Amino acid sequence: MKPQVYRSKVAWVCGWAWMLFAAWNVWDLVAHGSIPSALIAGAVLGVITALVFVMALRPAVVAEEGGVRVRNVLRNAYVPWSGVDDVSVASAIVIESGDTTVRCWTPQATARERARAAGRAAKAAKSANRAERAVAEAVGARTHADWVAGQLTEMSRSRRESSSGETRVTWSPSALAAVAAALALVAAAFVVS
What we know:
Blueprint: E1 4-6, H1 9-32, H2 35-57, E2 60-63, E3 67-71, E4 75-80, E5 86-89, E6 92-97, E7 100-108, H3 111-126, H4 130-140, H5 144-158, E8 168-171, H6 173-192
Antiparallel strand pairs: 1-2, 2-3, 3-4, 4-8, 5-6, 6-7
Helix pairs in contact: 1-2, 2-6, 3-4
């Protein structure tokens, strides 16, 4: 089974647009820059790129065969389907597993998105018959985060037998490496300038 990845599509597209912009600027700095100013500009570019990577490209909720993997900004969490006790949504999706609570960085339900969803549900409820009104109220008031939480709840119920592993939360090596590289660029810029 192919893993299902849930994330903010807007953040993902904007993140990759920034990566293209950063790659072009790195090429320009290498080809045309002089050392002190190019290194300072490269350090600023490196810090922003590291932030874009850890905050826009990396975060995701990945539903796998054996459990759900949550990639947050600096941390990774894995919860097997048999360990999922509850999935709820406040402003973020929250997965509870025993004493461990995992808040998902993405997708999130903003107040604006909730208001738009409630408006869609109210509009559909006014113009429909009773059965359509019930469907509109149940589905129309849901945000993307509510839908993802529902999918995770359904998967946790149906895949309990095929779950594997144990609940664990760890630091992300790729995120820490990106932050360390950005800090190294800043240190180099201070030393050279």
